[in-house]
Amino acid sequence: MTGRTRLLVAGVGNIFLGDDAFGPEVLRALAARPLPREVRARDFGIRGMDLAYTLLDGYDTAVLVDAAPRGHRPGTLSLIEAEPPDGTHAGPPEAHGMDPARVLALAAHLGEGPLPRVLVLACEPERLPRSEDDIAPGLSAPVRGAVDRAVEALHTLVPVLLADPAATPLLGRPDESAPPHTAALPPPEPGAAQDRRVAPPAAHAPTGRARPPRAVS
């Protein structure tokens, strides 16, 4: 590998399940405002196996763009740092969905080396069907309004991460500028009032190596 930082931005989600389409919609919006050429930006949709193998391609950092219920106001953006997988979610990807925890566990199982650092740019959904029988294409108004903010956030985050893959970027809006939460994926159960603890920024392990998990009370 050369000394140049390798960064992946991956949209994930099912376009037929309401606000789960947030990730693909953000990647579509990036076509009009592309990221720097050295960044690979791709919509993976629900192709979990494809994403798992891509995570093994030698990236320093991967930013997954996804809808994730964390108990915030619909449309709120959060930057979450994923814990290294512990094997409990290992298994094949779902046929009609994308479970980031399962994808990370699968990538760890398939590869021999360390995974990249994984951040999740998450949007609080308003409408997130849990079954493929509840087909409801189209984003809710709050999540639709967050798409352009997510594009802005990526244009803020990416230069920071290219300069230093271990950096702890902040989101731009006052209500979205807390340091990344240290949290295992999948996220907490919907309905929680707020994240119970916000972990302070911590030094990242050497580029390309996973950081040991930190407990969340």
Automatic annotation (TrEMBL):
Tagged with keyword Cell division: no
Keywords: Aspartyl protease, Hydrolase, Protease
Region spans: Disordered: 169-217
Gene Ontology molecular-function annotations: aspartic-type endopeptidase activity; enzyme activator activity
A GO biological-process term: protein processing
Family from the record: Belongs to the peptidase A31 family.
Protein's UniProt name: Hydrogenase maturation protease
Organism lineage string: Bacteria, Bacillati, Actinomycetota, Actinomycetes, Kitasatosporales
